[in-house]
Amino acid sequence: MITAALMLLAWAIEILIGWPSRVFAIVRHHVVWIGSLISLLDRQLNQDRFSAQARYALGVVSSLTVVSAATGVAVAISWALPATWWGWMIEGLIASSFLASRSLYAHVSAVATPLLKQDIDAARHAVSQIVGRSPEMMDEAALTRASLESLAEHMSDGVTAPLFWCVLFGLPGLVAF
After folding, report:
1. Which of 15, 29, 164, 3 lies closest to 94, judged by CA?
2. Banded pLDDT at 1 (limits 50, 70, 90)
3. What DSSP character marks residue 119?
4. Alpha carbons 144 and 141: distance in angstroms, whole number
5. What angle do helix axes 52-80 and 161-176 make, rounded to 10 degrees?
6. 78 in Cβ contact with 91 (< 8 Å)
7. Are 140 and 123 in contact (CB under 8 A)?
8. pLDDT digits (tens, 9 = 90+) for 68-102
9. Tens digits of per-residue pLDDT, 98-144?
């Protein structure tokens, strides 16, 4: 499929349905699978019995292994799917799981809604879900700034960059990113 069209399809699917919790309960999210592989490699290769230089080299090998494995799966999927409307829909559905605009909207809305109702405690709780710093002493302006800073940072990681790599290289580029 043309990569720009795949990107638009994936983004539309992600905006409309996101990654439903029912699907997550059955097949998990790709980040969970990748995280499991990273944890396995970390347990096996990041041990005190290796020198610092060896651990660094093993970390590089681990990174390349994770990216290669995930990208290889994406290449196989792209290659195996037929060039039909349903093949494109499946690829778009898979690609949509690598985007996060719907989740970003939900998290920032969870801050904005209580702020509009003057519920500062609920807004603080919502901010605590998306930032690393403690929101306990934040006023309305600080909560707004924190949520918008988080939105900007995660927009780059969860939407802009993935879409860019999807346009350039299709599903494999998106997954490699």
Report:
1. 29
2. low
3. -
4. 5
5. 100
6. yes
7. yes
8. 999 999 999 999 998 888 998 999 888 888 888 88
9. 888 888 898 899 999 999 999 999 999 999 988 888 888 899 999 99
Sole residue written with tokens 């690393």:
132
Whole-number Å distance between alpha carbons of 75 and 173: 9
> In this structure, are residues 159 and 104 in contact, taking their beta carbons and an 8 Å threshold?
yes
- Residue 47: phi and psi, rounded to 5, are -120, 155
Give the total residue count for the chain. Answer: 177
- Contact call for residues 161 and 173 (beta carbons, < 8 A): no
**H runs (alpha helix) in 3-84:** 3-17, 21-27, 30-45, 52-80
